[in-house]
């Protein structure tokens, strides 16, 4: 988003990346401004965690900044950036799987009131069905394997065409379709189970 009153940069994303490589100190910042919200949203949906998403986006943008000279223009800049963000998310998930951590949500003194202390986050339930459904989907999505989650986030939540999602994920179109199909079945089952305790 541009500063109030500032004229939007008329250059295309590809022209901005080329300008960055040529030494323009403002060009890459403009690319980031144009796409940061969507990159953040994809990272958040892929990781399911705000801190992990923020770290993944930061890692991805640093990687993109450093690797800009290798951008050949075979795909859109947004596809290139999405690929880097999704890869950063998956890398962080793989590292987390190797070194699992436990959230600091211990209950205080084993009381019967269920009150949590320490680093636990107090969540107030919203009674509206729309919000509850979204929370159910988010929780179920977080339980899918990262590869299925990444495919579903791109294709189903952000309407990225399957062919472009395949480029972002670095896999064949059929693989994206298969991951989406398996992910949808697993998601539906998780939501059915949640709905019928």
UniProtKB/TrEMBL annotation:
Domain DAD: 51-98
GO BP: DNA-templated transcription initiation
CDD domains membership: Sigma70_r4 (cd06171)
PROSITE patterns: DAD
This protein's UniProt keywords: DNA-binding, Sigma factor, Transcription, Transcription regulation
Family the entry assigns: Belongs to the sigma-70 factor family. ECF subfamily.
Name by which UniProt lists this protein: RNA polymerase ECF family sigma subunit
């Amino acid at each position: 988003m541009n500063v109030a009153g500032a004229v939007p940069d008329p250059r295309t994303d590809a022209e901005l990346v080329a300008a960055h490589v040529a030494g323009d100190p403002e060009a890459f910042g403009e690319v980031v401004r144009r796409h940061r919200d969507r990159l953040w949203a994809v990272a958040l949906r892929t990781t399911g965690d705000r801190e992990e998403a923020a770290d993944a986006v930061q890692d991805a943008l640093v990687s993109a900044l450093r690797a800009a000279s290798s951008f050949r223009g075979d795909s859109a800049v947004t596809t290139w950036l999405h690929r880097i963000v999704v890869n950063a998310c998956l890398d962080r998930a793989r590292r987390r799987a190797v070194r699992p951590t436990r959230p600091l949500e211990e209950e205080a003194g084993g009381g019967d009131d269920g009150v949590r202390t320490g680093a636990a986050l107090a969540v107030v339930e919203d009674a509206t069905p729309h919000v509850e459904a979204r929370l159910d989907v988010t929780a179920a999505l977080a339980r899918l394997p990262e590869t299925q989650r990444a495919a579903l986030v791109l294709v189903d939540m952000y309407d990225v065409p399957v062919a472009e999602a395949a480029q972002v994920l670095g896999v064949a179109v059929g693989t994206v379709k298969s991951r989406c199909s398996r992910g949808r079945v697993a998601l539906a089952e998780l939501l059915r189970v949640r709905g019928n305790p």
